[in-house]
TrEMBL record:
Species this protein is from: Peptoclostridium litorale DSM 5388
Ion transport recorded as keyword: no
Enzyme Commission number(s) from the entry: 4.2.1.-
The protein's name in its UniProt record: 2-hydroxyglutaryl-CoA dehydratase, D-component
Domain of life: Bacteria
Keywords per UniProt: Iron, Iron-sulfur, Lyase, Metal-binding
PANTHER family per UniProt: 2-HYDROXYACYL-COA DEHYDRATASE (PTHR30548:SF3), 2-HYDROXYGLUTARYL-COA DEHYDRATASE, D-COMPONENT-RELATED (PTHR30548)
Pfam families: HGD-D
Lineage, uppermost ranks: Bacteria, Bacillati, Bacillota, Clostridia, Peptostreptococcales
């Protein structure tokens, strides 16, 4: 199947029904052994230093891995994607656009998905058939999520990794399904580990993947990954069709819509505090103000930039935050 790059989660059902293999350029970038080379490629070609590292990484990954066709989400994700697509077009890459309408009206979402299907020459019946096949894989990710927050057997990083990979099914749907089946079996056989502090991670997936292991040094663990969980479409099986599925997808829409599910998960998972990750030079950093106003729970904002590991200052801030929470919990007990 022909590979096609994506800048974030899009209706993979449409692409796979059309015979494409979606490749999430974010994952291609951040999992590279030498991820910084992709940023260097972008800056060498003229991208400014004062631009989000993800955009530069996506560009570099696209160029370095000979991706010749790409879908960019120009509404409902990064505000810089439109400019990125213009530059990639200059490099001879075939460009497609997809939007999650700001109106968040179901009829507008249906119109956009139908346009997307027409673009790739597939019918609704083909897309729904593929949606059913992908549903069984998403069910496995939901089991890993349950093994994290309910059973204490999966780690926060495993929860993050397997769910975030559902944006493109790791480039091979069948192989990834086998990987998830094995992971569910292995994790289920473990003894549970219950940390004193139950944390939620909200915001875009991190550049600094070591944040999951770092918090475990302080009797804490992540039992909720907001956006990664949305990439896994946990409510897809309740959706009547693909239009409803992408209407219920919270990530691209306004904060009030996202907050409904965040509040629900805080309650169901008995979360003590949240760490809100934002990326330097990203407009989503402003959302931290809204979260702290509308959520009655301790929140620490952590900002990442080019590094794929936590710096000393950020580690110190997280440690102080967790120490305070542990002290407060002891006092309450």
């Amino acid at each position: 199947m022909k590979k096609i790059g994506i800048t974030t989660t899009v209706p993979a059902e449409v692409l796979m029904a059309a015979g494409y293999t979606p490749v999430d350029l974010n994952n291609l970038f951040i999992t590279s052994d030498d991820y910084s080379k992709y940023i260097d490629i972008a800056e060498r070609d003229g991208f400014p230093k004062s631009l989000c590292a993800w955009i530069k990484g996506i560009y570099g990954a696209c160029i370095e891995n000979d991706i010749d066709e790409i879908i960019g989400v120009t509404e409902g994700d990064c505000s810089n994607t439109k400019s990125l697509l213009e530059v990639l077009k200059l490099r001879g890459i075939k460009i497609h656009q997809f939007s999650f309408p700001h109106s968040h009206k179901k009829e507008d979402i249906e119109t956009e998905i139908r346009r997307f299907m027409d673009c790739f020459g597939v019918k609704l019946e083909q897309v729904e058939d593929m949606r059913k096949k992908l549903g069984s894989i998403r069910d496995l990710a939901e089991k890993i999520d349950h093994l994290t927050y309910s059973c204490g057997k999966a780690t926060g990083f495993e929860n993050h990794l397997y769910q975030v990979s559902l944006s493109d099914f790791d480039g091979d749907m069948s192989l990834f399904e086998s990987t998830l089946e094995k992971a569910v079996d292995d994790i289920s056989s473990r003894q549970p580990v219950h940390k004193k502090l139950r944390l939620g991670y909200i915001g875009v997936p991190p550049m600094t993947g070591d944040i999951y292991e770092f918090v475990e040094n302080f009797n804490a663990g992540f039992v909720y990954n907001e956006v990664q969980r949305e990439f896994a479409f946990p409510r897809a099986k309740y959706a009547d069709d693909i239009f409803t599925q992408y209407y219920d997808y919270t990530y691209p829409y306004d904060m009030d819509f996202r907050l409904v599910d965040i509040k629900k998960q805080i309650s169901e998972r008995k979360i003590d505090a949240l760490i809100h990750y934002t990326q330097a030079f990203c407009h989503r950093a402003v959302e931290d103000m809204v979260l702290k106003q509308k959520l009655d729970i301790p929140i620490l904002n952590v900002e990442g930039d080019k590094l794929n590991s936590l710096d000393s200052r950020t580690k110190l801030r997280i440690e102080a935050f967790l120490d305070m929470l542990l002290d407060l919990k002891e006092i309450r007990i």
